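Sample pair:
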Amino acid sequence: MGKVEAGIPEDDPRNPAVIADNVGDNVGDVAGMGSDLFESYVGAIVSALLLGLVAAGNNGIIFSLLVVAVGIVASIIAVFIVRLVKTRGGAHSTLRIGTYLSSILAIIGAGIFSQVMFGSLYLFWPIAGGIVAGMVIGAVTEYYTSADYKPVRMIGKQSETGAATTILSGFSVGLTSTVIPMVIIAGAVFLAYISGEQFGPGGGLFGVALAAVGMLCTVGLTVAVDAYGPIADNAGGIAEMSGLPHEVREITDHLDSVGNTTAAIAKGFSIGSAALTALALFSSFSSAMKLDFVNILDPKVIIGVMIGGMLTFWFSALTIDAVSRAANKMIEEVRRQFREMAGIMEGLVKPDYTRCVDISTAAALREMIVPGVIAIVAPILTGLLLGPVAIAGLLVGATVTGVLMAVMMANAGGAWDNAKKYIETGAHGGKGSEAHKAAVIGDTVGDPFKDTSGPSMNILIKLMSIVALVFAPLFIR
């Protein structure tokens, strides 16, 4: 509304929705992402404890908890190092050093405990594979969403010919960005299972769970790096609203662009960890149901796979539609205030910020009821009507399509956002140019992609796996 219709800068205090925007950054990229990663963290730990008990008795439980403890200590050490280190590469390089340092410390700790407790490194390799997979997925996400690399700059170039080519090129970037993360996740699962099998009976599934724990053991630092994005974004908003010099806003815009990249990296990490967590929970479900194998030629399994694959698309449609409906109400309210409250544009009258925050909050709570019910009811109904093998198919279908959809939407949204900021630095005509107007539309389309539907896929696949595991006794009866 502010940028496209009223022609005022982003975060201008005359915009009634400006506070809702700044609050939304915190809610989406700090509270929402933090709770998503916490859910993955707990789910991975629970699976590791269950499968570790089967594979190694009490030592399996103790080892899993020690890996978690090592990750916490590694994250704390890295946080203090980040506060002390200053690099020529600026904030991004410093945060990257913290990420790598915490991962290296966690790998070393896991290797020591594996050797001391079991006299071998068979359970170390799944953890190391999970940690390395998380770092690689983050690096791939950075490539596809940072303005320093070709994909985002290509979107900026395509913006010169209008919004349609902007959206098409961003969508293509999102689709392409799924290739390497899926290969990395598959490789981590293969390494974890093979190495775990060498450990002993039941070790393969335990290895998959340990890979998820390994990827998530430094989650404390991951959440911190993710929170950097909205902090920088809100700093820019404060600079704009308080009328600070233009040079200040240029600095915060650069930090905001870095923050978009770090937030995108965290989203990529959260998707990869959600995939491994869902697989670990699926392994726990299979163990509880005593499903040694699933026959993919069984019609019930095929039906389950189809339903699971369909659910991710339906879930995405519901969440995108929810954003669209809430945005319509927000736009109507902003237009009403511009129309009825004389003096807003001159800065003589203070807009009603609270009303816009209320619209967004109420819509978020109301619109999530149906998607939440679907995620809970779908596995229960499938299990009651078609049996455990159909649930196995459901979880496989939902996990595969959900991870692909999540990666595509998160990276496409991040690429559109940074393409807009890349143009705002002066490329392709800079602010106010036709390319900038097209990029703003791309960014607006990208927001529900990267901030709503993409992250919600993580919740869907994990929640269905957890529900299936909790209700396993009912399906057995």
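The first helix runs from residue 2 to 6.
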